[in-house]
Design brief:
Elements: E1 2-6, H1 11-23, E2 27-31, H2 41-47, E3 56-59, H3 62-66, E4 73-76, E5 82-83, E6 94-97, H4 106-111, E7 114-117, H5 129-144
Parallel strand pairs: 1-2, 1-6, 2-3, 4-6, 4-7, 5-7
Length: 149
């Protein structure tokens, strides 16, 4: 299982997702360009001392990321038809999340093998990126019995 972030904009969110990846022994793919410099102190601050324990793969762009994909891409999007908790996950799925300000463009949306949404109260716009990634990864690992021992 992998978590991929498409052109993330906020360093602190990326740091928090890196921490999630470290704790759940899950690779984090960062699809550039990002909206901040990689050496931004906010990444390290949010990731704290966990950053040395996570597998990070940085990709210069969407095409470079796709060159590493041999499994299903599950896109988490407000435009998803199905609920994330009704999807059947596979151990080698890639859970993809769009940028905080723009989501993903149509070609990325169209490439996803499965598009799901996290249900929430109607008048709320969205969840924080790292919160969404944690919720999604937890359900996928639960279903696939993929939690670390």
């Amino acid at each position: 299982m992998r978590v991929a972030l498409f052109q993330p904009c906020i360093a602190g969110n990326v740091g928090a997702v890196l921490r999630i990846g470290a704790c759940f022994d899950t690779q984090i793919d960062l699809i550039e360009p990002m909206g901040f410099a990689w050496d931004d102190k906010r990444v390290a601050r949010a990731g704290m001392d966990y950053i040395d324990h996570v597998r990070i793969a940085r990709h210069r762009d969407w095409d470079a990321f796709l060159a590493t994909v041999s499994s299903r891409i599950v896109l988490f999007t407000t435009k998803g038809a199905g609920r994330f908790d009704a999807a059947a996950y596979q151990p080698d799925d890639i859970l993809l999340f769009g940028s905080e300000d723009a989501g993903v463009p149509d070609p990325v949306h169209d490439r996803a093998d499965l598009r799901v949404r996290i249900p929430m109260k109607a008048e709320m716009r969205s969840l924080n990126l790292s919160v969404s990634a944690g919720i999604a990864l937890s359900e996928a690992l639960r279903q696939t019995k993929g939690y670390p021992q």
